[in-house]
Write a structure and sequence with these properties.
- By secondary structure, the chain is α+β, with helices and mostly antiparallel strands.
- The chain has 2 domains: about 1-40 and about 395-469, Immunoglobulins (Immunoglobulin-like, Sandwich); about 50-380, 3-Layer(aba) Sandwich (Aminopeptidase).
- Helices cover about 25% and strands about 25% of the residues.
- Strand 16 (about 410-420) and strand 17 form a beta hairpin.
- Helix 5 (about 170-190) crosses helix 11 (about 360-380).
- The chain starts with a helix and ends with a strand.
- It comes from Amycolatopsis roodepoortensis.
Length: about 475
């Protein structure tokens, strides 16, 4: 009787659905010895349209972008904003012109803006009032434009002294590589019609304290923008470690656990019911792995369960501060002789962040990971909202409720679940186009989530439920 009960899934409060009790996990993960309702989860394979997009990504264009940005000498935030050939102003104008060329191919759906503000002195790294300008290209969604996904890199650079604005700071890896990824995606996707809005951004002020990204995130929050995901590409230019070894088929993705923006009330709930490994950013990381690890990208996404590296930070953090799901792509192993260093030779060793130390085929593969991710997000339904788990009665089953999304291409929902010790979701239960489900598994024993399914078969990110008494 107990085994039969574990195989039944109840939809709403009355209808019953029998489901095969299949075990299994996504490829590459350790398979837990569990049984329960639903179907085994598998990665979302790229369709013909996505494969065509990924084939268009051009490593030679990416290389040309990195070399052009490095050619401005320095892109330090405090460098000249008026010199036509050297400094951050010249780089800003070139990026704007290139993104405008991409926008011209969009039939009016992509717009490009210079997002500027005057940053007041913030010693030690901003000693004087300085204009900081982000270059932002926005591809408006065709059916749900209010849903926004952001992919960015920072175009400012630095040398050994963080306030030296005159010495050469080519910044090829850190972070012309990330800007090249965002610009290449803008070029390739400009002619497409995603359902949701995609933003391609080159931000400034990162090396001085994440100023450009913080301004951008603050503007979005003040406007009530529904940013459902943000990715920064920061130091994605090389597959070579400082010991000479290479890992050309792996990209790291840093995703925080306990949310940066968590309130004391939210912390009380988390401590009571769990969820330390189920932040919106962790769900985003799981989604990336499900859509971007395949033969079309040629990459493995190594998810790192922390917000960023030791002693470092990136442009995803200001978005996390505003409560937006965000994560950071970074190369698998860093060579610190080629970032934040004066260009020089010491004891026969070359220092400096120069294009010759970049791996351009690797950057192109990172761009494909980004493209697979943002295109899959922007063509699937959004993350379900107001997902709750009923806790007003002591029962050995689980009631979930959520709010129906407004996506016109929404087909329905799936309840997903996993053992509390499992790294990723293992099972999915189809529940159709409804807003509640009863599952014959104890909410005390496993973790649940809900994700939306589009008419095109694409699944969106999972939403983790909060208690509803």
């Amino acid at each position: 009787m107990a085994e039969e009960r574990s195989r039944r899934v109840f939809l709403s409060t009355t209808a019953a659905l029998s489901a095969a009790a299949l075990t299994g996990v996504p490829a590459g993960a350790e398979e837990p010895d569990v049984r329960g309702p639903g179907e085994r989860l598998s990665p979302q394979r790229p369709d013909a349209e996505l494969r065509a997009i990924l084939r268009e990504i051009d490593e030679h264009r990416i290389e040309a972008t990195v070399r052009r940005l490095a050619g401005f000498g320095t892109r330090h935030t405090l460098s000249s904003q008026t010199d036509p050939v050297r400094g951050i102003g010249a780089a800003r104008d070139w990026i704007f012109a290139e993104l405008t060329k991409s926008a011209e191919r969009s039939g009016g759906r992509m717009t490009v803006e210079l997002q500027s503000y005057l940053q007041q002195p913030a010693p030690p790294r901003i000693p004087v009032a300085t204009t900081i300008t982000n270059v932002v290209a926005t591809l408006r969604g065709a059916t749900t434009p209010e849903r926004v996904y952001v992919v960015s890199g920072h175009y400012d650079s630095r040398c050994s002294d963080p306030v030296d604005a005159t010495k050469d700071a080519p910044g090829a890896d850190d972070d012309a590589s990330g800007v090249a990824v965002a610009m290449e995606l803008a070029r390739v996707l400009a002619t497409r019609r995603p359902a949701a809005t995609i933003v391609f951004a080159a931000v400034a002020g990162e090396e001085q304290g994440l100023f450009g990204a913080r301004h951008m995130a603050t503007l979005y929050k003040a406007a009530g923008t529904n940013v459902q995901a943000m990715f920064t590409n920061d130091i994605v230019g090389s597959s070579k470690a400082d010991d000479g070894t290479r890992d050309p088929r792996t990209i790291r993705l840093f995703a925080e656990g306990v949310p940066t923006s968590e309130t004391p009330a939210q912390a009380d709930i988390r401590r009571a019911v769990g969820g330390e490994n189920d932040s919106p950013s962790r769900q985003l990381a799981r989604f990336v792995r499900s859509v971007a690890e395949n033969d079309a990208t040629g990459m493995t996404v190594r998810v790192i369960y922390r917000r960023d590296r030791y002693l470092r930070g990136g442009d995803h953090i200001p978005f996390l501060e505003q409560g937006y799901p965000a994560a950071r792509f970074t190369e698998p192993h860093e060579d610190y002789a080629h970032q934040h260093q004066d260009v020089r030779v010491e004891n026969g060793k070359r220092f400096g962040d120069l294009p010759e130390f970049c791996d351009f085929p690797f950057i192109a593969r990172v761009a494909r990971v980004n493209a697979a991710t943002v295109w899959s997000l922007a063509t699937a339904p959004g993350t379900p909202e107001d997902v709750r788990i009923r806790t007003n009665q002591l029962t050995n089953d689980t009631d979930l409720v959520w709010r129906r999304g407004s996506d016109p291409d929404l087909a329905g929902y799936e309840v997903v679940w996993r053992e509390t010790t499992a790294d990723d979701w293992t099972h999915a239960i189809k529940v159709g186009d409804r807003t509640e489900a009863k599952v014959d598994l104890s909410k005390d024993n496993v973790f649940f989530g809900v994700r939306a399914v589009g008419k095109n078969g694409r699944r969106g990110p999972v939403a983790f439920p909060t208690p509803l008494s």
